[in-house]
Amino acid sequence: MVSTSSTTTFDNVFLFLLVISVVLLIAITVTMIYFVIKYNRKKNPTPVNIESNLLLEITWIVIPTALVLAMFYYGWSGFKFMRTVPEGAMTVKATGRMWSWQFEYDNGIKSRELKVPLGKPVKLLITSQDVLHSLFIPAYRIKEDAVPGMETYLWFLPDKAGEFDLFCSEYCGVDHSSMVSKVIVTGEDAFNTWYREAGKKAAVTGKETQLKGHELVEEKGCLDCHSLDGSIEIGPSFKGLFGRRVLVTSSGKEREVIADENYIRNSILHPDADVVKGFDDIMPPQEGNVSEEEINEIIRYLKGLK
User: Fold this and answer.
1) 98 with 52, same domain?
2) Which residue, 158, 183, 208, sits at the end of a domain?
3) Which residues contact 168 (CB under 8 A, 6 or more apart)?
4) How confident is the model at residue 69 (pLDDT cuts 50, 70, 90)?
């Protein structure tokens, strides 16, 4: 059983550094004021050569060195603590994408919020679907980069029930500020009930190999950039898209295309091939993130958004 949380560890390190900084600030300020008064020109009109002081020189070498080594040791102890995941920690995969987080559990549950049980250590396996992100949970004093094509990790101990903010702390594009989620900490019984029921639903979904269209575009992060009501956001709206004539830029040349099945499929898998005029080429390719069955379900869904 883990008895110390990351909050306690980092707070102790912070307080240690803060106390040292305050003591040094006071000592240096007092010394400066003392020297200004003692060696004022009015009191010492005739300059006097001051000889070296071996004891003083040794003191200002030994004390700063000891302080630096103490700070290094304390910081290293905290870092080592945070890189050593306790046995029995619950593993959750966290994926950053423009511009939302997706959390995937061992039983197939996928959620936009990180739900965890009170008092059980949690290990997050962190990666990115597109650009560099950084997962930051201020309440637990933890932060780790989400790097495309690479898996990083961190762990924390939820020691208090409630909801806590989860941010991306690495500027990742125009909608970076909206990449906000929640850590929801509940009692073990409540969490187990949610985990069991949501797991059953995820298992059924896996057998059917497809979700309903609206659930798919939400789960895959499509609605972070595309609206359903016709409003223009980072990307074109899905409303009335299917069958419409669209002006796109292909290989530097403008052309008009029909938003049919092939266009939508190609826009999902190779979004840089035909970029809608007036929008930036920022959508990452979705190959490997969406199956053929899911693409077909999304197309059927878009057909109905008239």
Assistant:
1) no
2) 208
3) 96, 99, 101, 133, 134, 135, 136, 176, 179, 180
4) very high
